[in-house]
Amino acid sequence: MSLTVEPLHARPRPQEQLDRLFAGGWPEFIFHDQETARHIGRVRALFADLELVLLDGDEPVAAGWAVPLCWNGEVPDLPTGYNDSLARALAAQDAGSTPDTHAVLAAQVHPDRQGGGLAAQLLTALCEDAARRGRGRVICPVRPTHKSRYPLTPIERYQAWTRPDGLPRDPWLRTHVRMGARVLAAAPRSQVISGAVADWESWTGLALPDSGDYVIPDGLSTLRVDRAADTGVYAEPNVWVRHR
Ligand SMILES: CC(C)(COP(=O)(O)OP(=O)(O)OC[C@H]1O[C@@H](n2cnc3c(N)ncnc32)[C@H](O)[C@@H]1OP(=O)(O)O)[C@@H](O)C(=O)NCCC(=O)NCCS
Question: What InterPro entries does UniProt report for this protein, alphabetically (predicted)?
Answer without folding.
Answer: Acyl_CoA_acyltransferase (IPR016181), GNAT_dom (IPR000182)
